[in-house]
Amino acid sequence: MAYKAKNEVTEDSRKIIDICRDLLSASGMGIKEFLSASGLGNNYWYMRMRYEAPLNTSDVEHIASTFGLTSLDIYTRALGSEAARAYAAREREFQVTDDLVDRIAAHPEDFDVAASKDLNKTLEAETPRD
C-alpha cells in the first residue's frame, strides 16, 4: 500500500468537511461565534473548508459538540444513506433478538416443545426398543 500524504483530503474527508459546513450553515450561527465555541482558529477552519487539509477526529468532536451532536453523528451522516441504512438494519436485528429473548423469558410456557408436554414421556422413555 502506498504511503498517503499527511494532509491529503480523501473523498471521505471531503464528505465530513461538507457535513460540518452544512451544520454551520443550518445553525444560523455566525462564524466568530462558531470559532469561539468550537475552539478552532479562523485560518485553520478556512483551510479545511477549501479542502487544503482534512479535519482530524478531535476537530470533528469539537464541531459536533458545538451543535449538540456526537462525532459519530457526523461520521454517520458522512457515510451516506446506504451505509446509514445498513447500520440501522443491524441495530434492528439486535433489537428483534432482544425482544424475542425478553418474550420467551416472560412466558416460557408458551414456548414449550411438544415432547416436554407429553404425559406419556416417562413411560415411553422406559419402554425397550424392539
What does this 3D model show about the protein?
It comes from Bifidobacterium merycicum. This is XRE family transcriptional regulator. By secondary structure, the protein is an all-alpha fold. The chain folds into two domains: 11-79, lambda repressor-like DNA-binding domains (434 Repressor (Amino-terminal Domain), Orthogonal Bundle), CATH 1.10.260; 82-126. It is 68% helix and 0% strand. It is built from eight helices and no strands. The protein has helices at residues 11-27, 31-38, 42-49, 57-66, 71-79, 81-106, 114-117, 121-126. The model has no long low-confidence stretch (mean pLDDT 83).
Outline the fold blueprint.
Blueprint: H1 11-27, H2 31-38, H3 42-49, H4 57-66, H5 71-79, H6 81-106, H7 114-117, H8 121-126
Helix pairs in contact: 1-5
| C-alpha-based Rg, rounded | 28 Å
Give the oligomer, counting copies of the same chain as homo and different chains as hetero. single chain
CATH class of the largest domain: Mainly Alpha
Provide the succession of SSEs: HHHHHHHH
Instruction: Give the termini separation.
Output: 68 Å
Low-confidence stretches: none
Strand content: under 5%
* Secondary structure: helix percent: 55-70%
Full CATH superfamily name of the largest domain: lambda repressor-like DNA-binding domains
Instruction: Please name the CATH architecture of the largest domain.
Output: Orthogonal Bundle
Q: Any idea how many domains?
A: 2
Q: What sort of overall outline do the alpha carbons produce when their principal axes are compared?
A: rod-shaped
The largest pleated sheet is described as: none
Q: Structural class, from secondary structure content? A: mainly alpha
- Named CATH topology of the largest domain: 434 Repressor (Amino-terminal Domain)
On the 0 to 100 scale, the average pLDDT is: 83
Number of strands: 0
Q: Count the helices. How many?
A: 8
